[in-house]
Design brief:
With 71 residues, the chain is mainly α. The protein has a domain at 1-25. The protein is built from two helices and two strands. It is elongated and about 65 Å long. The mean pLDDT is 89.
């Protein structure tokens, strides 16, 4: 189950980065023509986190859908 362990590690690391960014937010700025957008970085991390969590759920195992018929 190395893939699920790797996904769990990646999720933990990205969640820690998101926590750090939101705990001490920084403004968007430019240095020598290079623009640094913390908002874009946070958005990218959030998207990655969602994708990793979806992949983790897919690898979690078989699914069983249960439904009830209405009388």
């Amino acid at each position: 189950m190395a893939a699920t362990d790797d996904l769990a590690t990646a999720i933990t690391q990205i969640a820690a980065q998101i926590k750090d960014i939101t705990a001490d937010p920084k403004p968007t700025y430019s240095v020598n023509g290079q623009s640094v957008s913390w908002e874009s970085y946070l958005s990218m991390l959030t998207e990655q986190l969602i994708k990793l969590q979806t992949a983790q759920q897919s690898l979690a195992g078989p699914y069983q859908r249960v439904s009830r018929m209405r009388p």
